[in-house]
Amino acid sequence: MVPKTLSVILPNYNHSKYLPQCIDAILTQSYPPAEIIVVDDASTDNSVEILQGYAEKCPNVKLICNEVNEGSISIFQSQWRQVTGEYLYAASADDYILPGFFEKSINMMEQYPEAGFCSGLTIVEDGEKKYLFPQAYNGIAAKCTYLNQEQVLNAFIERDWPIAGNTVIWRTKAARDVNGFPKELLNLQDEFTTQMLGLNYGACFIPEPLCYYRIVPGSFSAIYREDITKMRNLTDNSIKAMEVTYSERFPSSFVKYFKRRTRYSYMVGELARKDRLERGQIDKWKNNNRRLGPLKGLFFYGLRKAVRVKKLALSLYLFLRFGSPSWFRVVRYFHQYRIN
Prior knowledge:
This protein is an alpha/beta fold. Helices cover 48% and strands 17% of the residues. It has a domain at 1-95: Spore Coat Polysaccharide Biosynthesis Protein SpsA, Chain A (Alpha-Beta Complex). Strands 1, 2, 3, 4, 5, 6, 7, 8, 9, 10 and 11 form an eleven-stranded mixed β-sheet that branches. The mean pLDDT is 87.
């Protein structure tokens, strides 16, 4: 049996610090990609020098150097329909994959040829701690499994299945057949397509760490996570696409769930933003006010605690009012698996 081929698309902009670890992790996989399309997006550091070294010694590395910065979304859009692999993976230059990732994922999808994608767990580092995502208590599956379309729908609606994007390998033909990755959804296009593939083809899931994800301040995804208005506009566009352009691909029950989930996410995000502003204002008062004497520290400590209690109370209200509470969701909130 001839092994199925895998294509990897890797955009890069000024990530020379992480490039060697990222590319070495791809090249040393037990299931090597047939092609690794690396696009440098007009980097101003020494990224091109590093990438040229890999392109010269590795025949499956194809290097493209943009003269003008286009952005990672534009790069993916220009490349994904041209790949030759039967499977497709979108890599990030500031992340890296763990040994066996490609082999485990593709073996699962070969075992279940109807599956539209395969995903697993990722190790997240946010600068302060490391933890697994989805959380260890995810309720999806305790062992490698295939979920059919109905099971995928149930995993979303009943379990809030948060798919780790950097662990997803798509079946290329399926993504093309559903006209996936709509460019107008920008950095939500991959999540949108992954959901669509799962709902229409089913999905494979591997409940073990497959990749490593860094939250890098100032990155494209980090900027969008911090900008509630931009994220709201994108999710509104996603809902419109589900209801109009791709209405045959998204069950009405999923669209209803997605609307509820995004409304809850907006509220939680806005609450977090206001909490940061209040704590920042308290710190500013503390630094500017020198007349409280020995009581100063105690006063501002109590003030910060009061703000925290208010946030917790409002978070609980939002969860009970809009978060569709269930025993599963309550347990999950207290079951995050941190990695020392």
